[in-house]
Amino acid sequence: MTPTKKARVWTMVEKEGKSITETAHALDLNRSTVSRAHKKLLEQGPNPDFYLEVPRSGRPSSISPRLERRAVRYITSGRASDATDLQRQLFMDLHPTTIRHMLIWHRLFGRVHHSKPLLIKMHRYKRRKWAEGFIGWKVSKWKRVWFADESKFNLFGSDGRMYCRRRPGEELEPRNVKPVVKHGGGSLMVWGVLTWKGPGRLHRVEGKMNALQYTSILSDSLLGTAHDQKRKPSSIVLAQDLDSKHTSRLAQKWFKQKCIKLLPWAPSSPDMNIIEHAWEMLDRAVHHREHRPSSLEELWKVLQEEWAKLDVQAIRHLYESMPRRVEAVLEAKGGYTKY
Questions:
Q1: What pairs with residue 261 in β-bridges?
Q2: HSE on the CB side for 106, CA within 13 Å?
């Protein structure tokens, strides 16, 4: 504990009459830490020396305070990414585990990087301008917007890292093994639309989608959703990303012919499209089923079933988050948000 904090502990407990628990809470310290410090200060009498360093038992630290501060600066500034990187740059004679313990003491924990789209300076500027244009929108306005996008679903689970809990020696039990099929086992690309009233139609994308197929999907599934909900196409405000198929001349001509309004969109902004969360909900529902699909046709059937069963209330919560999302983009000055 630093001399300054020792002085604050002494002042709060002895002069202000606060309890050990209240002092620990105010200083954001563990109660036992404050209790031990207070006890050692009492042993010195009524005028303790806050700078007194009592000799400690055990082996001295391998890293000096000065080097610790330097290591923390390297991590927080991005000059080093992890303990191994620090070892190479600053601590050639130390084991990475020793460096990890030091970083944990400074509350720098090892975590997996968040995957986010690349944002260059122009992207940040356009995202901030986009947010400024919609900062005044309430949920009542966002209700009129339909969110559309495509997503890929794998037959055998996620492309990313998968975790399990197991005991030593159980690594090859079936429940702890991730099945891998040659060439990935196949996947499906689907297009869907999300509305305030619930999920719209889900459309299976055949092969690699181009502008012609995209307009065909819109004619079938977007207008089909409008028909299901008894909405005129001219009343639709569609939110979609800036994929080349979405912004193609053919697609723009189709939207103009059908009198469908497009919501202006910012580049690299999947965090503003709430359908991304609906895809996550759908993926969890599919892979939590007791009997998982074993073929692409079964997967397509299951996707349609689970998509239709998405909770409307959960979807409305996503709509209600839109004003907060816009605020988050402004607060981040067009940078990354938690969404």
A1: 237
A2: 19
Starting at the edge strand found earlier in the chain, the sheet holding 187-195 runs: 198-205, 187-195, 145-154, 237-239, 261-262
3-state secondary structure of 242: coil
pLDDT tens-place string over residues 235-285: 999 999 999 999 999 999 999 999 999 999 999 999 999 999 999 999 999
The two structure tokens encoding residue 222? 């977007």
Phi-psi region at 238: left, alpha or beta (left = phi > 0; alpha = psi -120 to 50): beta
Domain ranges across the chain:
3-43, 65-105, 121-331
Cα–Cα distance between 339 and 328 in angstroms, integer? 9
Q: Is the pTM of this model over 0.85?
A: no
Annotation: CATH topology of 121-331: Nucleotidyltransferase; domain 5 (3.30.420)
Cross-strand pairs, 191: 150, 203
Q: Which residues of 306-320 are buried (b: 16+ CB within 10 A; e: fewer)?
A: bbeebeeeebeebbe
Dump strand ranges (E) for 178-246: 187-195, 198-205, 237-239
The β-bridge relationship of strands 187-195 and 198-205 is: antiparallel
